[in-house]
Amino acid sequence: MAKTVANLGEKRDIHLFDSFHGIPHLGPKDEPFAGIEHDGLDEQLVTTGVSACSREDVARNIARWGAAADNLIYHEGWFQDTVPPSDTGPIALLRLDGDLYESTRICLEYLYLKVTSGGFVIIDDYNLTGCRLATEDYREANAILAEMHTVPGGEGAVWWRKD
After folding, report:
1. What pLDDT score does 42 carry?
2. CA–CA separation, 114 vs 111, rounded Å?
3. What does pTM read for this prediction?
């Protein structure tokens, strides 16, 4: 996304929220996937180590792709800790890759209201039970009727345009 913004000659802030420690343990509304199982832990916000990638590696990848780093704003930590107090300003494109119910729910709860009218929402992990339930619960609770579309080649990702 940062590369596309740069290619278009746009100067927009791009907020990146991530723990950089991997996916946390499953909650009660999530089903096992990719080697992540329910393990009976009471503490969900402990990493499983799956999909861990350091902030430094992410920054190196972004630089390798040729995207400018000066408009990237990193929010490091669990979504539950970093998303609610964040001040992103208006959002033109909200892309969520939270995998789990709670991660997706918290992002929708605090960031969807900032999506501008006509802005886009992309949910990467809609094929995962927890993510799909969080998306459906949020859309129903907030009477969001915008048609969802599948992302071609997106392996279960969906998108919609905010009315």
Report:
1. 57
2. 5
3. 0.88
